Amino acid sequence: DTEVTQTPKHLVMGMTNKKSLKCEQHMGHRAMYWYKQKAKKPPELMFVYSYEKLSINESVPSRFSPECPNSSLLNLHLHALQPEDSALYLCASSHIRLAGGPHQALNEQFFGPGTRLTVL
Amino acid sequence: AQSVTQPDIHITVSEGASLELRCNYSYGATPYLFWYVQSPGQGLQLLLKYFSGDTLVQGIKGFEAEFKRSQSSFNLRKPSVHWSDAAEYFCAVGARGNDMRFGAGTRLTVKP
User: Fold this and answer.
1) Least Cα separation, residue B13 to chain A (angstroms)
2) Which residue does chain B place closest to A58, by CA atoms?
3) Distance between CA atoms of A105 and A30, rounded to whole angstroms?
4) Which residue of B has its CA nearest to A49?
5) How far apart are CA B15 and CA B11, in angstroms?
6) What is the pLDDT of residue B102?
7) Interface contacts A/B by beta carbons within 8 Å
8) Cβ contact (<8 Å) for A108 and B44?
9) Which distant-in-sequence residues (6+ apart) come within 8 Å of B89 by Cβ?
10) Does the beta carbon of A74 lie under 8 angstroms from any beta carbon of chain B?
11) Does pLDDT of B28 surpass 80?
12) pLDDT per position as a tens digit, A34-85
């Protein structure tokens, strides 16, 4: 299985709602990522989890709360979002590349199809 | 920190014509370089990658890229473009840890 799945495909929420985005992979990857992508822009890294622990938080507002309950799942909890948070949210996963490690331990990232989020 | 520049925001080519998309990177050590393609509303699909070894890399869908250290470039090429190649193309550079940075992207339009 070389697929990263994301649910839901589309999400519309109000500014007072609480919702969650889900991501799943079964490739044995121990690094998982959340990206935000606005229209006609490249993906912007939000969070990185390595071995189920948060390793990178790119100064993301606290209304976005990531969670990695196990090595296959990654969630993004949303609360009190703003209309400017509307975007495509992409999940990715990869093996963890160790410094000096073999090239098999790569950070080639596999992406899911994304969740299109609209905040009203 | 590593960074990537894609000088062309939008390129239009005729179907059957050759294609070259430019990518320049900035990184102090040997970079890990990638080309991804994204169709509208979709996730990103890896076309090819370079880590070391042969500087001419073959990818999926008939794409290839050449790593030129002296020019800090990793340009993507295809000898004959198909209408289905119309999409957004992103060059990316990976560095230490699991950090990867994307270029701004090049939108490819294919004329019939």
Assistant:
1) 19
2) B99
3) 11
4) B98
5) 13
6) 92
7) 67
8) no
9) B6, B21, B35, B36, B37, B38, B47, B76, B105, B106, B107, B108
10) no
11) no
12) 999 999 899 999 999 999 999 888 899 999 999 999 999 999 999 999 999 9
Instruction: Please give the structure tokens belonging to residue B65.
Output: 């890229």
Q: Which residue has the tokens 């209408």?
A: B83
Going by pLDDT thresholds of 50, 70 and 90, the confidence category of residue A104 is very low
Taking CB atoms and an 8 Å limit, are B98 and A106 in contact across chains?
A: no
pLDDT, tens digit (0-9, with 9 covering 90-100), for B64-83: 999 999 999 999 999 999 99
Amino acid code (one letter) for A101 = G
- Alpha-carbon distance of A67 to A73, in angstroms, equals 8
User: Which among B98, B99, B106, B109 is the top mutation candidate for probing chain A, defined by the most A β-carbons within 10 Å of its own β-carbon?
Assistant: B98
